[in-house]
Design brief:
Rossmann fold; 394 residues; glycosyltransferase; transferase; 6-stranded parallel beta sheet; Glycosyltransferase_grp1; alpha/beta; Glycosyltransferase family 1 protein; EC 2.4.-.-; 2 domains
Length: 394
Amino acid sequence: MAEPLQADPKAPLADLRIALFSGNYNYVRDGANQALNRLVGYLLRQGAQVRVYSPTVPEPAFPATGDLVSVPSIAFPGRGEYRFPLALSPRLRSDLAAFAPNIVHISSPDIVAHRAVTWARHRKLPVLASVHTRFETYFRYYNMAWFEPAVEAMLRRLYRRCDALVAPSESMAQVLRDQRMNYDIDIWSRGVDRDLFNPGLRSLEWRRNLGIGDEEIVVGFHSRLVMEKGLDVFSDTIDELRRRGVVHRTLIVGDGPAREWLEDRLPDAIFAGFMGGQDLGKAVASMDVLFFPSTTETFGNVTLEAMACNLPVVAAAATGSESLVADNKSGRLIPPGAITQFADAIVTYLDDADLRAKHGAAGERRARDFSWDRINQAVADTYLRLIRQRAKKR
């Protein structure tokens, strides 16, 4: 096994050997694995060595950054696009031993992550867990809210066995503290690519191709279309706008297993489908207001991308959005599920072009603070700190 890093506060990142475990590194695109791939890319550029362990599929959503080792998995029941990791097999244990990491990073609370933590603890290696979503809340959207306390207890057991956690926002870190998950929690925020998301990408031609008039005001949503993104609240609010006779267009960018449900629910909405890269930036910049009522975000990449495009954001007052949106300055934060209040906030923006512009500009200024390199260096600094702390205990 590789010798641990010495307690040198200026130790170079080239001394890092990171074993990263992910439940979904690249087979389905989402905000969490986009952040992980960016992190790995940054670490590799700094000379660190990273080996990623994750389920794989023959045709992933995008190429993996770094060395990817396939973890045995099966399709997740009821959500076949996702894979359920099965075991830290002898093959993986042999690969780990050959790689000889000096820190282990887990990013999803699955069986293999539990086994990886045990593997690391037996070898007195530090373990960092990154928290990307509020898994315990997902069961509310599938009529299984009764199961949430048990899931929270299972998460606590895993996270308390880790040396530290990183969370995407201070609001999420406080939730984790309140849940007694761990008391060593650093912030690993999220960045935004300003080449892909900026006001200059707004395109009236793109809107026209979708049948949107130049003077029409667009209430937009962009995310993976799954129920835990608040699609029920979104559709109920759009219905409320319709009942009030509020003139607007609803634009939904994204795809997922709940798309058919949402298309049936909102037959007058425009569904642009999945987009990536600059096409996605153009779609977001071509909206006028982002409406994002999800309560399961730990950060809110969608919110930050809209802010970078100069849009005011109407969001649920929940983890993630609370750390990004300044209420009544760059958008509105509304109590989760408060349909009438969501509708009121959207109407205010639809009726007041000057307020849209003012709050959009404030959000764009805030988005300038989120540099990916600075953000990813914070994770690297946490790796180095945990290795130094572990070395002192030997």
